[in-house]
Amino acid sequence: MTRHTFYLCTVQRYRSFTGYFIHKYGTRLQKVVVDAGFTCPNRDGTAGTGGCTYCDNRAFHPSYSTPEKSLIQQIDEGIEFHKVRYRRAGGYLAYFQPYSNTYAPLEELRRIYRPVLEDPRIKGIVIGTRPDCIDMEKLRYFKDLSQEMIVMIEYGVESCYNRTLERINRGHTWEQSVEAIEATAALGIHTGVHMIFGLPGESRDEMLAEAGMLSRLPITSLKMHQLQIVRDTAMEKEFAEKPGDFVTFSLNQYLDFVVDFLERLRPDMFIERIVGEVPPRFVRSTPWGLIRNVEILRLLEKRLEERDTFQGAEYVNPKENAIPCNH
Ligand code: SF4
Q1: Residues flanking ligand 1, CB < 6 Å
Q2: Residue of the nearest CA to atom 8 in ligand 1?
Q3: What are 184's strand-pairing partners?
Q4: Which of 54, 48, 58, 49 is nearest to 233 (CA)?
């Protein structure tokens, strides 16, 4: 592999998402999570039942967002919740995070989103969904919306391996992820991807190889999470029965893994997250203690510096390596 000799910039060794909105839109924007009451096809029997083996949605969204409240009430409370910490926010993004937020016919989506889109405090929407819950009709709607406000779609991909997706009962394939990502990016819509590292049956080398597989796709930003075993899930049971099937990372091992992963990743992909933060009461254990995300980011930067490396250092651009055609 060729070791590239450029840095992303003189001070930053990976393409952090922090500052993205200031650079792109000239202001700080804060995400406010809203729960619009969607479900997901992996729970209602359309793609599967029982859901993904690691999932307990209560663990993944804040207390102010519950579907019993109207979306505007959730936004009011979310803004209040973030006000002290994010005093300099120039506006808010409504983050439709829990479950699959495109899992309804288009007309229903329009009706659900409308009050949020009409709220002057809201500068854009972030839509979390599954790759099998999108189609061209919905994408064209989001494309039209993106002419007026910020629109970001975030796909739960989780793994590039179909055998893993089957084992965790995801109910969709890697090929469906590829198709959704390519169709979204082709319309110029911000395309985010969410991945989990440490899923059962995957070796460290296989997880690292995913950097190359993702780099070939037109992904704008990436969220990476270490697997956290949530209480009372099927995954908790599986972990207790077959712990040898799981690669578990100490914090130090995870930092080195993320550095290795970043080295193999396309240098222009934004890194939105490197760890998940499930509240301690929901997880089986907290092997890293109660360390905050911001501290882990600081440790990552330190580790990149110690290893004198950077995002994309080992990235191989398939186009650069293509053999020229003489026809
Ligand atoms: S993780 Fe998402 S797709 Fe899987 S069961 Fe939970 S809500 Fe559904």
Answers
A1: 40, 42-43, 51-52, 55, 57, 99-100, 130, 156
A2: 40
A3: none
A4: 54
Average pLDDT, the chain: 91
Quote the ligand 1 centre to 52 CA distance (angstroms): 5
Ligand 1 atom closest to 98 (CA) = 7
Q: Could you say which DSSP state residue 60 is in?
A: G
**Residue 47 Cα distances to 42, 127, 174, angstroms:** 5, 20, 14
CA atoms within 13 A on the CB side of 281: 2
Ligand 1 centre to CA of 240 (Å) is 22
Assess whether pLDDT exceeds 50 at residue 267.
yes
CA distance 138 to 158: 22
DSSP track, 9-49: SSS-SS-BSTTHHHHHHSS-EEEEEE------TTTSSSS-S
- Ligand 1 atom at minimum distance from 40 CA: 8
Task: Convert the pLDDT of each residue in 11-34 to its tens digit.
Answer: 689 999 988 998 888 888 999 999
Contact predicate 100/51, CB 8 Å = no
Mean pLDDT of all residues in 156-175? 97
Span from the CA of 162 to the centroid of ligand 1 (angstroms): 16
Q: Kindly list the strands in the beta sheet with 29-34, ordered across the sheet, starting from the edge strand earlier in the chain.
A: 29-34, 91-96, 122-129, 150-158, 190-197, 221-226, 270-273
Q: Whose CA is nearest to atom 2 of ligand 1?
A: 99
pLDDT for the residue 289? 87
Are the CB atoms for 255 and 300 separated by under 8 Å? yes
**What are residue 82's phi and psi, to 5 degrees?**
-90, -10
Cα of 39 from ligand 1 centre, angstroms: 8
Higher-pLDDT residue of 235 and 7 is 235
Q: What count of other Cβ atoms lies within 10 Å of the Cβ of residue 316?
A: 14
